Amino acid sequence: MSTTDPTPDTSDEAFSLKRIAIPAFGPSLLFGIGEGAILPIAPLMAKDLGASVSMAALIVAMISIGSLLNNIPASVITIRWGERWAIVVAGIWSALGMALCVFTSHLGLFALGCLMVGMSQAVYNLARQSYMTEAVPVAYRARALSTLGGVMRIGMFIGPFLGAAVVHWFGLSAAYAVGIAGVLGAAAVGARVPDLKPPPLPEGQTPPASTTIMSTLRDHRRVFLTLGLGVLLVSAVRASRQVVIPLWADHLALAPAVASLIYGLAGGIDMLVFYPAGKVMDQKGRRWVAVPSMVIMGTALILMPFTSGFTSLLIASLAIGFGNGIGSGMIMTLGADHAPRHGRQHFLGVWRLLSDIGSSVGPALLSFLAATFSLAAGIGVTGLIAFAAAGALAHWIPGRKPH
After folding, report:
1. What is the pTM of this model?
2. What's the CA angle centered on 82, arms 278 and 34, to 5 degrees?
3. Tens digit of pLDDT for each residue in 111-128?
4. Could you give the percent of the chain with pLDDT greater than 90?
5. Which residues of 23-57 are buried (b: 16+ CB within 10 A; e: fewer)?
6. DSSP 226
7. How far from the centroid of its chain's Cα atoms is residue 41's Cα?
8. Which of 83, 199, 272, 318 is most exposed by smallest CB count within 10 Å?
9. What Å distances lie between residue 158 and 17, 50, 62, 115, 248, CA to CA?
């Protein structure tokens, strides 16, 4: 699709997800592959540069910190340059960060490279969500954003396998070559996405005043303090689930290969159900998926400390993967539903900031509870947070379908 193409027809009759598949979802797949290729390798390279285990974990956490800190600046970048060029810049910036990680022998510069990757992640994710919110009719919104989230997860799933293959033949730094190729490929495909033109104002209507972060916070504070709290809780549960499965498998003295198998199977279930869930959200309403997603995850997490071996842990992990999978794109969809057309990027920047805060707080709380009480207590509390998230979503998500 050429950059000179006209603005896509977003009427319900003319719209087709298949027609926009490559420009809409191609960059997400490639960006996911690029990031997925480096994530398992980054702590190993940090250790090769002299970092301790705890220091290596902190340095890799700079990716998440970069995303958290850059959500608000990402909204400014997207407003100023537009969604298409924000996607391109994010890919180039991520590639530069990865290149810095490869070619430096200084631990501080390696940490800076990780921070740059996280910063680009914030810009890319916000620009993609903003573009899809405008380009896709409301009747298809949940399917489109669920697919967007699902495709990114598929890329994150494929990336480590590609990275492992090249590392086997060429060494650790080769994984970063896969990463750089992936994010630059995302930038190249993103450069061909057509710009969206704002709809013309009705005759006699003056353009609205420009928005700021502060005006967005003031005008939408009720949404941020209600449904936004639910989103924060959802993100805390989702981020915690990534460490719960391997930690409890280790607690049960299962072999690392067995733990990896359980984690991989849970991830496979996660990737299979995103589109049907998006269709249900479009046809029945957001509550029909958002609430069950958290209830299923909460139930599985509360029951996990009672598992005693491979089979029971696998069942609990598959339930977590299923609950997380049907919620793919849920946070993006809820953000798109409540974002105003004017100042959308600022709204989504704050929305993603709430999500990233939850993603940071969840694992930290799990770690604190595990150290203070026990791992079982930490997992159980995470399950209770999932039920709290379900209650918040059930109360604050509008019962009607968006129009």
Report:
1. 0.87
2. 60
3. 999 999 999 999 999 999
4. 58
5. bbbbbbbbbbbbbbbbbebbbebbeebebeeebbe
6. T
7. 20
8. 199
9. 23, 29, 22, 23, 25
